[in-house]
Design goal:
The complex is a heterodimer of chains A (197) and B (397). Chain A is of the alpha+beta class and 197 residues long. Chain A is 23% helix and 35% strand. The longest helix of chain B has 33 residues. Classes of the chains: A alpha+beta (197), B mainly alpha (397).
């Protein structure tokens, strides 16, 4: 009997170890102010879904139909020395780190370099950069498009960001340029416009 | 999905090797080359080979439409010309080359003739002879049907591994089989290196250039590590599972083999290579700079500047420092922009970079003047609105 119990315990342990952590999704109802990734507060004008899994501690992922179709990525209060995404391959391809000396013109460069390394692609182009009031503070807004290896799909994106002291607050929206980007961009921009700190 | 099925997908998708790999003596460039049809083109023979071709045909359809492929006719014609000179016009017809914009050093050739040449490779090799080494290596993989042989080897061993999995302690023997699969792959790499040297010699290239690629890649890895303050990864090879054993050994082997088949001493084709790649270097360098590898980028720029620092190279070096932004970097960058402009540089981004650097260095008026000059020179710049705000002529929406 003892042996059987041990066997069951061993199998249970193996199962627990082998089971990947699945992301759960929770509704973010429209019209209700929501905290996105800690300090950043937004009020969605549509229903969104919030992922329980966070790429980095100070981040959050929202989507309408699934993250590959429309993804909002919130980063709240990134400090110098931290990376925009999880530094998953830091020995081979480390992500750039936020620097205390960065100013707003360098945020698109920081974002672009982070994405190029994370996606392992060189086909990433910033198509427009303009000043933007983010949460009532001087900020930057920029648009970009990219493609990755092994796929023909082009994705487009838009980012709004600001620096408060040397902390970075950022919202990015990414979707396939076919259909989804144009369809959902106003909803994403409404969220960016509602940002408050 | 069983191991064999996974293997066929991996092999079909990636071709047999991801970069040039180790070579050693005892090469047996033996197995029958790919059979040809009436028109002289290679055709698959048995069902396994036909299956691999079908899979790679499928991958090639995606590749054909990939936004990463550089379609410039001049660059494509040049790379194809080097391949044809190296392997001969008749054989060359089997290859369809795709130049893929990606900053790493790599080239592959799939069993159906789809050849990928990555731009990171074009940035790193210094001359035509070195490019011929890589293309010749990949073509030898194709010609010797290494993908098919590797697949058959994996399939037979994975069948055995499947059976062993049913036995107690069978996994020990399974591991042994896995090791032998990698050993088989290494053997093919040696064969491909030997084939490349023979082809280079036949085409009249200086075969000493083959080893130089590896010496330079090792030096670049040292530079990456030094800038990151970490240990160099040049001898990281994955141990028994590596298809690419230590490159020092490989460079040494290539030096020895080159002495036996020297080709034409001094025929590196460096001038032709510079002429063909020159128009693309700014783009490839820019892709490299944005890849967050200061040491490698600085090393590559030094190499490109072996015959002098031109304004585009000075600009790239300045951007490298400005983007790193460590202590002293901004001042260094400003000086390099100065040199590039004084040297006759006309790239509008020179004024953008210097303007941003000068503002950081506490020279707002000089900085704004530079940014105004940038906007004058690049009226359609993507960041026009942002830079205009910094010069005081635009504001936040």
């Amino acid at each position: 009997m003892k042996r059987i119990c041990r066997l069951i315990a061993a199998v249970a342990l193996l199962t627990a170890v082998a089971t990947p952590a699945f992301a759960g999704w929770k509704l973010v109802p429209k019209g209700v102010p929501a905290l996105a990734a800690g300090g950043l507060k937004v009020t969605p004008s549509d229903d969104w879904n919030r992922s329980s899994s966070r790429p980095i501690k100070k981040s959050e992922v929202w989507t309408l139909d699934g993250a590959t179709l429309n993804e909002l990525y919130f980063v709240s209060g990134l400090v110098p020395g931290e990376t925009l995404f999880k530094d998953a391959n830091k020995k081979e391809r480390p992500l750039p780190k936020l620097r205390a000396s960065m100013d707003l013109t360098e945020i698109p460069e920081f974002f672009e370099s982070s994405q190029r390394v994370a996606l392992n692609t060189s086909v990433f182009e910033i198509t427009g950069v303009e000043p933007y009031k983010f949460a009532g503070k001087p900020g930057v807004r920029f648009c970009f498009q990219y493609a990755v290896q092994g796929a023909t799909l082009i994705r487009e994106g838009e980012v709004a960001a600001t620096l408060v002291g040397d902390k970075l607050y950022l919202i990015s929206f990414i979707a396939p340029s076919i259909h989804y980007f144009d369809r959902d961009r106003p909803k994403a921009e409404a969220i960016m416009a509602s940002a408050a700190l | 999905m069983n191991i064999a099925r996974i293997a066929v997908n991996v092999i079909a998708g990636l071709a047999v090797c991801t970069s040039l790999a180790q070579a050693r003596p005892a090469v047996q460039a033996s197995q029958a080359a790919v059979p040809r049809d009436d028109s002289g083109l290679y055709t698959p023979t048995d069902p396994i080979e036909r299956g691999l071709w079908l899979q790679t045909d499928d991958a090639e359809r995606t590749m054909r439409n990939s936004p990463l492929v550089i379609r410039d006719p001049a660059l494509n014609a040049y790379v194809r010309g080097v391949l044809c000179r190296t392997v001969g016009e008749a054989k060359c017809r089997n290859a369809r080359i795709y130049i893929v914009r990606t900053p790493q050093f790599n080239a592959t050739m799939a069993p159906n003739g789809m050849m990928e040449v990555w731009t990171g490779l074009l940035l790193r090799v210094q001359n035509e002879a070195q490019l011929a080494t890589v293309l010749g290596h990949e073509f030898t993989h194709f010609e010797q049907r290494h993908s098919v042989r590797l697949f058959k080897d994996i399939k037979s061993k994975s069948d055995a591994a499947g059976f062993l999995g049913m036995l107690p302690w069978g996994f020990v023997l399974q591991a042994g089989l896995l090791v032998s699969m990698y050993g088989f792959s290494r053997e093919m790499e040696r064969e491909a290196d030997a084939g490349a040297l023979l082809k280079m010699a036949g085409a009249g290239y200086d075969t000493r250039e083959a080893a130089r690629i590896w010496e330079r890649l090792r030096a670049e890895m040292d530079a990456t590590a030094a800038a990151r303050n970490t240990k160099t990864r040049k001898d990281k090879n994955g141990g028994i599972f590596a298809t690419h054993p230590p490159t020092a050994e490989r460079a040494q082997y290539l030096v020895e083999q080159a002495a036996k088949a020297p080709g034409t001493a001094g025929a590196t084709g460096a001038d032709r290579y510079r002429a063909a790649l020159g128009p693309w270097w700014p783009q490839f360098v820019d892709d490299q700079l944005k890849f967050n590898d200061f040491g490698a980028s600085a090393y590559l720029l030094e190499s490109l500047a072996s015959e002098g620092w031109t304004p585009p190279l000075l600009y790239a070096r300045a951007e490298l420092h400005r983007r790193r932004g460590a202590e002293g970097d901004v001042a260094r960058a400003a000086g390099l922009y100065d040199q590039a402009i004084a040297g006759g540089g006309i790239l509008p981004e020179l004024w953008r970079g210097r303007g941003l650097a000068r503002i950081k260095l506490g020279q707002p008026d000089a900085g704004k003047a530079d940014l105004t000059e940038y906007l004058k020179r690049a009226p359609g710049a993507a960041d026009r609105a942002m830079i205009a705000m910094m010069t005081g002529t635009g504001e936040a929406r």
